[in-house]
Every structure is written in C-alpha cells, then in structure tokens.
Known about the structure:
Elements (H helix, E strand, L loop, with lengths): L4 H31 L10 H11 L12 E3 L9 E4 L4 H9 L4 E4 L18 H12 L3 E4 L2 H4 L5 H9 L12 E8 H12 L5 E3 L5 E8 L5 H11 L3 E4 L4 H13 L5 E4 L2 H16 L8 E3 L10
Parallel strand pairs: 2-3, 2-10, 3-4, 7-8, 8-9
Antiparallel strand pairs: 1-4, 5-7, 6-9
Helix pairs in contact: 6-10, 8-9
Amino acid sequence: MKQPYSLxxxxxxxxxxxxxxxxALADLKPLMASSLPxxxxxxxxxxEVIDLILKEGKLSTLPDTVDTLKSGxxxxxxxxxxxxxxxxxxxxxxxxxxxVNFIMAHEPTFYNHLDKPDWVENNNIVKQKQQLLDKHKxxxxxxxxxxxxLTPDAISYGVVxxxxxxxxxxxxxxxxxxxxxxxxxxxxxxxxxxxxxxxxVVGDPNQTCxxxxxxxxxxxxxxxxxxxxxxxxxxxxxxxxxxxxxxxxIRDARLLGQNVSLIVLGHAVSEEPGMEYFIDWLKPxxxxxxxxxxxxxxPFLWM
Length: 303
C-alpha cells in the first residue's frame, strides 16, 4: 500500500537531517582531533638517563669510576643533552644558549683525572667555571669508563666510522689492515676525514702503510709501546703520546731499521668522533629529548 505523501515527506526530512548531521560530524572530527591535547612528552631526570644508558648498554655499575657528576644533581629534570669531549667554557655557554642543562663529557671538567676542584688550591678558573655551571643550572656527568665498555667501544667505533674504515674494523681489536697507502697520503686522509688541521708525525712520508695500530685518546706510553712491540704495525696512530716515551721509542726503532711510523692526532680531536657517534646510539632510546653534539675542538693554535 502506498504511504501518504505527508508520511513520505516526513521520512525524507528525517533522513536528510540525519545525513547532514553525520556529514557535519565528519567535518568536525579533524577540528576535534586537532583541539585535543597532545600526549605529554616523558620527562627524564639526569639519573634516569644515566640508568637507561647502563641498562641499554648492558653495563654493570662500576664501584670505582671517574664517571660521576661534576656539577648539579641527579634528580634534576633534563631539558636536553649535549655530548662533548671536554666541557670547556665555550661548550657550557653553547649548552646554555641551546637551553640544554645536561652535558655528557668524556674528559675532566676541572683539569685533573679525578676532577678534584682543589687539585690546585684556590684555583680561580675552577671557581669561575663552577659559578658558570651553577648560573645556568647545568649538570656535567663524566662519561669515560662506561662508554669505553660499550660493545663495540663507542669511542673507537666513532673514530673508525668517521675515518671511513668500518669495513676494516673488528670490535675490540686496535689493529686495522687497510689498502696500502704512503704515509703522507694517510696523513692527508686523517686530516680531511677527522677534520684536523695539523698532525705531528715521526717517520718517512713515503713509507707504505697498511697495518695500522689505532689508539685514540691517551692510554699512556707503556700501552702504546707494548702494542707496537707486540703487533709490529706499519704506523701507530694515537691521540696523545708522552714525548719521552712513545715518541722516543718510535724514533729509536726507526734508527735501528724498523719500518714503523707514528701519527699524533691530538687528544681532543682523536676521541671527539666517538662522542659525536654516541648521539646515534642514544637518540632512538630517548626520542623525547633534544640531544646535540658540541665539539670542544682542538685547543692548539698552529703557528
């Protein structure tokens, strides 16, 4: 039976209104979604970040380590992280400019291995540095022992990566075998890849180098000489070397007919690539934090 006109008209109006309502709701959804508050970013304290690094790196807590806070407190909420080699005045000021309050530094803040502020009594530079850190409420954590215990050692890995030698690298092994290259060409490669202005060299620029002993940083003359004696590399590449130890050993070795050379990169620039690489390791684990590398750079002016 055909329904009356008025009834059909009523159904049409009702359905039209419902459809319009659904369309209007659909139009509103993006607006409603955009007006909803975003999920809050997770806040991290300094100690929580340190604990995360140890956990993710599968590192046991060291009972005797220099990796301690040099300023600030572990309970401080982190606004961002800066990695660097040395927490120089310039690095601290750059962290403050970036509004970052947590510096991870590979080497000492106060000019001695244990970071004792009274290493030299009444040190005015130490006092001014402490005041600057306090002013900007910046925490400094030394990240030396633990980063070297990561697998692979993040410092060595970062240096090898920046030198484009990863294909020749074996974790835990300081010896790399690269394609044969004259010493002078090897020096040029290191200057360009690592961004170093000048290198100090003991050896013949035309000597062929293939077997490399790579020891960034300052592990000491005894270990440097021991590696040279044991592994017989063509060239020993170090961060810094005691001139009365490793340097004189290489000089005499050459005078006695041994085909070995020495390249001294400089301490800061030799390990800086490792602290730079560590950002790649850390960022995926702390996506809510701004993490930046600020190089402390070569302290020397070459004249």
